[in-house]
Amino acid sequence: MKRRVVVTGLGLVTPLAIGVEETWSALVAGKSGIGPITKFDASETTTKIAGEVKDFNPEDYVSRKEVRRMDLFTIYSLAGTRMAVEDAKLVINGNNANRVGVVIGTGLGGLGTFEKFHKILLEEGPKKVSPFFIPMLIANMAPGQISIVYGAKGPNMAIETACAAGTHAIGDAFKQIQRGAADVMITGGVEATVTPLAISGFNAMRAISTRNDAPEKASRPFDLDRDGFVLSEGCGILILEALDYALERGAKIHAEVIGYGLTGDGYHMAAPAPEGEGMARCMQMAVDDAGIAPEEVDYINAHGTSTDLNDRFETQAIKTVFGEHSYKLAVSSTKSMTGHLLGGAGGAETAFTVLAIQRGIIPPTINYENPDPDCDLDYVPNVCREADVRIALTNSFGFGGTNAALVLRRYDP
């Protein structure tokens, strides 16, 4: 018999705020976290806006010495983990360390470190490259450092599947517990790539918004006037536990994870498969894994990137899976407020989905002003909505045609 898996802790570092309550308050208020780029001189890049994390002091989470030895994505993940561990009141010690694992998703890992030391290599020569360069760069240093700091000695890995990485990480953590390989998993997604190279690369692909004169209006999923996603940074970290383990230690339960789907398009390195065929199979797999009927889903936290193809094809995929029920569902894209955290998106958005279930409030899709005829579902436009959300689904789709979906349910003993 499969073990039931529940969420007991949440941690958030986002362009909206640092902290779960602070981020959630901004989210349901429909605030935007998008603004002019301040992390570097963006005068020569086509896009001059991003979703930056504001007022983040790394030394609040790691020592000054360690700050110099870690990329920002690793520090974000440690910050989110501290919040989640404290929220879960989780104690890791010699009695349970081998049964506590870590799986973190990221899209690009230490890109900022790569840029920094490549510049040093070119200007100052190879002997000036730090011995910490490689450990700072690699994606698995986020779960590695979490393991080191908290003494978690169970399954440990990084998932690097572009914009689906955070959701894949949570799904994999869910399955690790479900099959008995661990009792507790620290999991989620993280990204810290508001850098010149990332902005320039996405500009070259014509993937990101150039609405520089109105940053707060730039991320507008499902709106006819959308012109690309907004690059953002941050993390969402969750504590997952086997239900019996959580109950035994008296943990507060936020929600239950009940289904996971993952598919590949087999189509194109950047564009989704026509009509969202791979997306639809992914959602269907998650619903089937959860053992529910599609009509039982109340809310979908959409991938909703604010790009032309994603928004149209995700809408079509929802219709394929949910049929007439698609028009009764609430669908919203929180990227309208946070921007796109790439590999961190799935972590943050799964946390948002948990909170929507727990608190009975669906975050809005802001900047929905000129409806796209091809996107005709209920996107919870501009204002949050009180609703009885018992079962919800969250989507993440990434370059390479990789897709992930999770189904969560209100915890019912």
Give a short summary of the structure:
This protein has 413 residues and is an alpha/beta fold.
Write the layout of secondary structure elements.
Blueprint: E1 5-13, H1 20-28, E2 35-36, E3 49-50, H2 64-67, H3 72-88, E4 100-105, H4 111-124, H5 133-137, H6 141-150, E5 156-159, H7 165-178, E6 184-191, H8 196-204, E7 234-242, H9 243-248, E8 255-264, H10 277-290, E9 299-301, H11 308-322, E10 330-332, H12 335-338, H13 345-359, E11 361-362, E12 385-386, E13 391-398, E14 402-409
Parallel strand pairs: 4-5, 4-6, 9-10, 9-13
Antiparallel strand pairs: 1-7, 1-8, 2-3, 6-7, 8-14, 11-12, 13-14
Helix pairs in contact: 3-6, 7-13, 10-11
Mean pLDDT: 98
At CATH's second level, what is the architecture of the largest domain?
A: 3-Layer(aba) Sandwich
Spell out the helices and strands N to C: EHEEHHEHHHEHEHEHEHEHEHHEEEE
- Sequence stretches where pLDDT stays below 50 over 5 or more residues: none
**Which CATH top level class of the largest domain fits?**
Alpha Beta
State which percent range the strand residues make up.
15-25%
Strand count: 14
